[in-house]
What does this fold into?
Amino acid sequence: MHLAVYLPLLLPALAGLSAGPLARRLEPRLATWLLTAAGLILAVSSTVVLGLLAVAGLVRLPLIAALEGYSPTVIARDDPAAWPAALAGAVLLTLAVAATVRLTVRRAGALWSAALEAACLPGRESVVVTDDLHADAYTMPGLPGRIVISHGMLDALDPTGHDIILAHERAHLNHHHYAFVTLAQISAAANPLLRPLATSVAYTVERWADEYAALHTGDRRAVAETVAKAAVATKRTRALRLPSAALGVLGRSPAPGIIPRRVAALLEPPPRRPAHLLAAAGALVGVSSVCVLEAAHDLHEFLELAHLR
It folds into this structure.
């Protein structure tokens, strides 16, 4: 258990470092699915390992050992985890669970508020045009979700740009991109080493929507120009902050360099699916899962051995 129990705690750091290159080199839809799934598996694996360490520490307590019928001699001789590791595991497990529950509740509240806000928007059409002079366009998740575009954004773009913006936002709505972003954020809450991965998922859903718009219009350069124009218009008019659960054409937080990266990607041929990158990502997740199973098996055998006979 000694080696297996620690690898799942370290592998998320490697995943965080690899998330950026994967987001840039893989086809955006595939990258989004892969990063989100990997983040969830790695977060669950590291949390389970922390739980195993905590259990290994608990059985060393005389009261717990007596209640469960464990042999103090066997526990002292074959203990799979030292006290410092077990104590650290218990503390980190508590923090991880608390952070995960807190973020899950916050995101659920944000999605519920967004659904109510979407339901209260005027009209029954999926697209709502507001009188706001600030340039803005975003998608509100809900049942049904709504696409909100301001007059300021429409004024800043030509008719082709209007079609591209609508296609981009429909991609967010139809493919439930907010769910991918939420799951990646929950993974990062459980294990902060996965924060770069969550940031990459927020980027890949925008790239996914960009590629969807490019496929819809058949003109990658026009989509690149529209993204750039929308960024300039939003900056010029100082658009209001997006609702917490919304996804906009410029992303949740257009940090410096994100828009140029998206524009540059659109000016290049569509990305492919490098088999070696997929194999490496699969191996990373597979190793983490196997290590968790091995650690759980070792702890189970230790507890069976420690039972008084």
